[in-house]
Amino acid sequence: MSYLSLDDVSYSYDNKNNAVESVNLEFELGEAVAIIGQNGAGKTTTVKMMNGLIRPDKGRVLLDGKDTKGISVAQLSHHVGYVFQNPDEQIFQDSVEKEIAFSLKKQKLPQTEITTRVKDAARLCHLDNKLNEHPYNLPYSQRKFVTIAAIIAMNPEVMVFDEPTAGQDHNSIIRLNKIIKKLTSMHKLVITITHDMSFVVNNFKRVIVFAQAHKQKEGSPAEIFSDESLLRKSKLEPPVIGQLAKKLGFSNVLTVTDLLRVVN
Ligand SMILES: Nc1ncnc2c1ncn2[C@@H]1O[C@H](COP(=O)(O)OP(=O)(O)OP(=O)(O)O)[C@@H](O)[C@H]1O
After folding, report:
1. For residue 193, how many other CB atoms are within 10 A of its CB?
2. Residue 170 belongs to domain spanning
3. Which of 46, 51, 81, 124 is most buried, judged by most C-beta within 10 A?
4. 82-97, pLDDT tens digit by residue?
5. GO molecular-function annotation terms (predicted)?
């Protein structure tokens, strides 16, 4: 049995058009999974069903075998952490330290445990020298890491990152790679929505494609980016390196490492 399952879920915001329709998904702990698709494809609606922010109109969400229908969002947040697309919807404390510690204090954890968790999460997110700063004095990129650190400190089994690469520079994307690797090595399930196809091929072995409210396909990056009709239907393009390699006559190239292999 999978740790997290979406069993034939559908959801409509207006009772007319389904934002998500008849989606089935299974996830295991220790996996890193990317969800991709055009704007409006249904990705965010789907992940919000995982932590109860949205309840399916039809179908079930199962966590560790239990239907989440009767579990409150507050209870679910101990198991499924969700980092919002926009950090400013999540941040409301006046220091980075308080923001990361907020949920831990609400759980009434011992102060020594809170201090350790805040320090560890801040270090992983390169915020250890920013703990006393007001989050709104930090640039957008670092505010996003504040929200990521706050979820990591809560230590849920599942972490959902909605568009973590948006507005991030090269070094921040490398930091995200490291965070995802560290979390999966700790047996966490990491689910990431992203529009950055290079980030997808460099970090995820499993990719799920959404278009027009449906899951279209899931598979390895190679399976997804070699499926021309899927890419056309979903209005997706392979990462730039793959597009360049194709123009040069090389197939099955998705990363710089792949390209070096075929040109050498
Ligand atoms: N709060 C809302 N009220 C009404 N309709 C909504 C709301 N949020 C999303 N929708 C609609 O539901 C559909 C799916 O949206 P969703 O945000 O899940 O897509 P997405 O794939 O995450 O897109 P993006 O990449 O832009 O975040 C779209 O048609 C969108 O316009």
Report:
1. 24
2. 4-237
3. 46
4. 999 889 888 989 999 9
5. ATP binding
